[in-house]
Every structure is written in structure tokens, then in C-alpha cells.
Amino acid sequence: MGEMLGVRCSNCGICCEETMMEISSEDIERLEEKGFRLEEFAVIDDAVTRLRNVDGYCYFYSRADKKCRIYNDRPLGCYLYPVVYLANEGAIVDELCPMGQTISEQELRTKGKILDKHLKKIENESAHKIRIAYSLESIATLKATVLPLCFRSHFTVTVFPSSLIYTTLPKCPAS
Ligand code: SF4
Fold this sequence. Notes:
This protein has a domain at 14-127. The longest helix is centred in the C-terminal third of the chain and has 45 residues, at 105-149. The N and C termini lie far apart (59 Å). The protein has 4 helices and 10 strands; from the N terminus they run H-H-E-E-E-E-E-E-H-E-E-H-E-E. Strand 1 and strand 2 form a beta hairpin. By secondary structure, the protein is α+β, with helices and mostly antiparallel strands. 19% of the residues are buried. It binds iron/sulfur cluster (SF4).
């Protein structure tokens, strides 16, 4: 990822400890292209995909080197840090970051806008995942309840990214 704004990281590792960093589909694709496997570096938490912690630190943090192993490809949220988003305050500089005072008002505004867009994208993707999960659950319920009754029924169920489409149901002999 190219650097849009100056980097002033002291490598303290605070932001990589017990990370809750949310990641988008673009972050995931970039990391998978580098050969990392999603199930190893991420967890799903309430339909939000986050970086996984291992022994208290982000999967990608090297405690030996005190460095991020994927610094140039790190998730956008890590790139924007120490600008973080609080629900009732908007974009702020995380007071835990020792380099936080180096963030100018202009940088806060710029990164804040990017972060806002990024978080909305993740939120949309989460809603999308919930819809798919719901759809799949509906199929499972359908199979468990309707199909055993309709032993002669043949119908197909197609899952589209955001919706569940049932083809016309044939008449069920059990109805
Ligand atoms: S991806 Fe890198 S910068 Fe982001 S939390 Fe993990 S180790 Fe830290």
C-alpha cells in the first residue's frame, strides 16, 4: 500500500496488542494474494471480520522484531491508525499511541474521512454476510421441515449474493 501520509511509528506495538481491527474484503484479498490464509489471520465476530490475536498480539505482529510482518500490506485500519473512530465522537486520535501528537488537524480530517468510508464498507459487508447466513439457515430449515413432508417434491433453491430465490414449488402431496 502506498503511503499517502507520513509514517511516524515508534514500533511500540501497543496498537497490535489484543487487536480488534476490523478488516474489509479488500484487506482480505490483498493478504490472501500474499499467500496468507483467511482462517489463520482472521476471526469472525458478529459477522465482522477482524484480525486474529495469537498470544495476545495480532497474528501478523512479530514480537521478536517488534514489527508488523506485513507492514506494506497492512489493513487499511492499521494504515490509518492512530486515527480511530468512536461512535459518539467520530474520528479521533487514539490517546494510547505515543506518536499521536504528531497527527495534525488536517491529517486527522483526511484520515477520518477515509476511515468513515472504510467502516461503512465493512458494515455493508457485515450486513451482506448476515443476509447470506440467514438465507443459508432458511435453506437448512426448509430442508429439515418441508422436504421430508414433500417426498415427491423437486424444487431448486438458488442463493444469490443478497437474496434467496425459490423456484416455483411443486404441489406437495403432504399438504
Ligand atoms: S496488521 Fe500489522 S499493524 Fe495491523 S495490528 Fe497487525 S501487526 Fe499491527
